[in-house]
């Protein structure tokens, strides 16, 4: 299963902010999208989720253009977690997570309970979402995506509000999902997370792909210098590398 962007370009207010670029993403892998502020990461993710029409080119899921899919079919296939997502209504955590089942018009308790458990939220299930801390709310929104059991999970900085233990737990959940065949695409600022947990890293810079490949090559000290303008070196062993400045 593939999610493919062909000649994808986005303009805002007459200014090119993304592309044109080609990208082919594989299901069953974790892809990290990295890059400086304003590089176009969130824009790329919304295009891959089919939430907006690009200015040029197209995104296709298994050779079917996203624009041609019924919104419900697209929502079943692709779970999208926006950056700084909020909850418009003050409902219980369980009901927020149940919203993930909307594309199926059911409320399968197993998938809701599994999503609550995966994000360590069972104790919060009956609490109003307004009473949660920022990190707890972020976990509830992620659980909503998991409850939909999408074939693709596209998440914009899903780790940003999470403490260390919950970051590691979430990465573990996403790794298990990818082993089961789900395509996982994460926007991450923490380059060590991308280095240690992604199978592939796409580095965006000023709307263009500056590097794309295995984490060791896409996040080499040379690329980091070129794109972020910072002198760094990687320390530590495979799977537990840290960036030293
Ligand atoms: N509606 C808009 N009008 C004009 N410019 C926009 C609009 N939306 C986004 N941009 C610009 O497009 C560029 C890419 O934005 P995007 O949010 O995709 O970047 P990003 O890589 O996700 O950044 P960050 O790391 O800060 O979240 C930025 O320069 C942003 O200012």
UniProtKB/TrEMBL annotation:
Domain named ABC transporter: residues: 3-231
Gene Ontology MF terms in the entry: ATP binding; ATP hydrolysis activity
Gene3D superfamilies in the cross-refs: P-loop containing nucleotide triphosphate hydrolases (3.40.50.300)
Pfam families recorded: ABC_tran (PF00005)
Keywords: ATP-binding, Nucleotide-binding, Translocase, Transport
Role played: Part of the ABC transporter complex HmuTUV involved in hemin import. Responsible for energy coupling to the transport system.
Protein name: ATP-binding cassette domain-containing protein
């Amino acid at each position: 299963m593939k999610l493919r962007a062909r000649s994808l370009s986005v303009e805002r207010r007459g200014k090119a902010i993304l592309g044109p670029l080609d990208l082919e993403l594989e299901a069953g892998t974790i892809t990290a999208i990295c890059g400086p502020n304003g590089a176009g990461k969130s824009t790329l993710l919304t295009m891959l989720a089919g939430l907006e029409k690009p200015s040029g080119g197209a995104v296709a899921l298994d050779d079917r253009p996203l624009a041609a899919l019924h919104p419900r079919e697209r929502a079943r296939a692709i779970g999208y977690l926006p950056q700084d997502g909020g909850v418009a209504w003050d409902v219980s955590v369980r009901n927020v997570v149940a919203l993930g089942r909307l594309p199926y018009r059911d409320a399968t308790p197993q998938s809701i309970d599994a999503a609550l458990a995966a994000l360590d939220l069972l104790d919060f299930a009956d609490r109003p979402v307004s009473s949660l801390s920022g990190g707890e709310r972020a976990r509830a929104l992620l659980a909503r995506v998991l409850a939909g059991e999408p074939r693709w999970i596209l998440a914009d900085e899903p780790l940003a509000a999470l403490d260390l233990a919950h970051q590691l737990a979430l990465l573990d959940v996403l790794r298990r999902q990818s082993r089961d065949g789900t395509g996982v695409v994460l926007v991450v600022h923490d380059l060590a997370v991308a280095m240690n947990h992604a199978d592939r890293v796409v580095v965006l810079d000023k709307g263009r792909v500056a590097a794309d490949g295995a984490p060791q090559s896409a996040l080499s000290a040379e690329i980091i210098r070129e794109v972020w303008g910072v002198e760094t070196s990687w320390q530590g062993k495979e799977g537990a590398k840290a960036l030293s400045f």
